[in-house]
Design a protein that fits this description.
Number of helices: 5
Radius of gyration: 19 Å
Strand order of the largest sheet: 1-4-7-6-5-3-2
CATH topology: Thiol Ester Dehydrase, Chain A
CATH class: Alpha Beta
Helix content: 25-40%
Largest sheet: 7 strands, antiparallel
Length: 228
């Protein structure tokens, strides 16, 4: 099982405008490096050298994962691969929470909007299905948290209806459908304009207290002790 969006406070060190600006610049670099073809080899070599110098400067010369250490839960959202402002890997989905209407009336619905660039390509012109699944897992986890029902992903079923386009804003909706004890059943949809491109059904499980302590050192869904 995998953890999905703990929903705890962001670490201030990874929620600054400066770090968000850095991630945005790297994100744009990734996108253009995946898109531009007609570039002089010498220019590519020169750019690669400059990037290596910047990497050395930022990572202080480390070659062991750039100093990565195990994180607290409250570090998660800024680093998220889908909504994380501090993550260059994230397509940067902005999301909001509102009361549902129609079929989701009486439920809390999370709506996210974002655009997948060249780095997320699967079939030419469309998003790789694995990234669609990742987006669903993340947004369902956030919807669970928003509904007061945090859980860990036990099963994720994705129904791909149509290809999800690159370079076009898509909208994803996610909500908790029903509860059965510690089991949380959630649903999500993604649209390109008015076209439904995929749907998801997620099963999440609230871990037993003893397992949560084993995995995380505290009860699941609660803020961990600050050990920094």
């Amino acid at each position: 099982m995998s953890e999905a969006a703990p929903g705890l406070p962001d670490n201030a060190a990874f929620a600054t405008p400066e770090r968000a600006a850095l991630a945005k610049s790297i994100r744009e670099l990734i996108d253009v490096s995946m898109s531009v073809e007609d570039v002089d080899p010498e220019a590519l070599a020169d750019i690669a050298q400059q990037i290596e110098q910047l990497t050395f400067r930022l990572g202080r010369g480390r070659d062991d994962g750039a100093g990565y250490v195990p994180r607290q839960h409250h570090d998660y959202l800024p680093r998220s691969p889908i909504v994380g402002e501090a993550s260059p890997l994230s397509p940067r989905f902005d999301w909001e929470v509102a009361n549902g209407e129609g079929e989701t009336e009486g439920k809390i619905v999370v709506t996210g909007r974002g655009t997948f660039g060249a780095a997320y390509e699967g079939p030419p012109g469309f998003v790789h299905g694995g990234w669609v699944a990742c987006m669903f897992d993340e947004m369902l986890g956030i919807a669970n948290i928003a509904s007061g029902q945090p859980g860990m992903t036990a099963r994720l079923i994705v129904h791909y209806r149509r290809p999800t386009p690159l370079f076009k804003e898509v909208r994803v909706r996610a909500w908790v459908d029903r509860l059965e004890g510690r089991r949380i059943m959630s649903r999500a949809e993604v649209y390109a304009g008015d076209t439904l491109t995929a749907e998801a059904e997620g099963l999440f499980v609230q871990p037993r207290p003893e397992l949560a302590m084993e995995y995380f050192g505290h009860k699941f869904g609660e803020e961990p002790p600050d050990t920094r």
